[in-house]
Design brief:
Oligomer: single chain
Helix content: 55-70%
Largest sheet: 4 strands, antiparallel
Number of strands: 4
Length: 283
């Protein structure tokens, strides 16, 4: 595995600015956002590298031999092309790798997490004219083709295997212990996809305390999304304190406490105590 080193402060600030601009665009570009996430992780990914990744998605779309027709035909054609011929799929070991969450590396390795492989499927299929979208099943992201009454689901992590209704129910039951709800089959918004990718990156970093730098930039990118959980501000403050930036972390904790106080004063008091504890560490 190639070691990934983050970009310098100036380049990082530029990527974040572009990420925020793209996230606030009228129609955010999913592949561009994913590549900007990759640029925060990998200082070797520059403008040329991002262009090359977009060109690779175009090339893969151009290799589809024809427009198949209905949703199942599209699903089968993409599985044969991306899964069988090109070898895109996942393995259990991919969950242990940061590069499994980075689009440019997934395109290079042809391995990744379910959601990143799904991004490849969606972006290639969209370029080819398919009626495609992501489906954010709990615990396992998949891809859908066609309208609800004709929906065909595929699992890119399994090489694009077409899922039956029972397959989808088992995936949800395995992740949550609950039955499949029809609302889970709705198309995922691109910004929700990006937030889920960033959550995966944070989960990877949380299991590796020495990589709190990764957790910090992932939460900071999440905060640039127009809609995000308010608790992310608290998570960022905690990370700042953990990394030794006690004053900034304490200020962030105080600011979060003011937000929480409107609905839960005891919780706000707990956060204020954490802020005082962080300031005490300056002495």
């Amino acid at each position: 595995m190639r070691p990934l080193h983050p970009p310098g402060p100036e380049r990082s600030a530029e990527w974040r600015r572009r990420f925020g601009d793209e996230a606030r665009a009228e129609r955010p570009d999913l592949s561009a956002l994913c590549l900007l996430v990759g640029a925060q992780a990998d200082g070797e990914l520059d403008e040329t590298g991002m262009d090359a990744a977009q060109i690779e998605l175009d090339r893969l779309a151009g290799e589809l031999p024809f427009r198949p027709g209905g949703p199942r035909s599209w699903a089968t054609a993409l599985a044969e092309h991306l899964g069988d011929r090109c070898g895109f799929r996942g393995t259990p070991g991919d969950y242990q790798r940061l590069d499994s969450s980075l689009l440019h590396e997934v395109l290079r390795r042809r391995r990744g997490l379910p959601i990143l492989l799904s991004v490849v499927w969606m972006e290639v299929a969209r370029r080819a004219g398919a009626p495609v979208y992501g489906v954010a099943l709990p615990g396992h992201f998949v891809v859908g083709f066609g309208p609800p009454e004709q929906q065909v689901l595929v699992d890119p992590f399994d090489g694009g295997r077409v899922l039956t209704g029972t397959d989808a129910e088992l995936l949800v039951a395995g992740a949550t212990g609950a039955p499949l709800d029809p609302s889970m089959l709705s198309p995922a918004d691109p910004l929700d996809v990006v937030l889920r990718i960033l959550n995966n990156i944070r989960a990877w970093a949380a299991a590796r305390p020495e990589r709190s730098d990764v957790a910090l930039w992932a939460v900071e990118l999440s905060l640039l999304l127009p809609s995000h959980p308010a608790r992310l501000r608290y998570d960022r403050a905690q990370l700042l304190v953990e990394r030794g930036d006690f004053l900034t972390g304490a200020l962030e904790l105080d600011a979060y406490a003011e937000v929480v106080a409107a609905v839960d004063e005891p919780a706000a008091d707990r956060v204020r105590r954490q802020a005082r504890a962080a300031r005490a560490m300056l002495n």
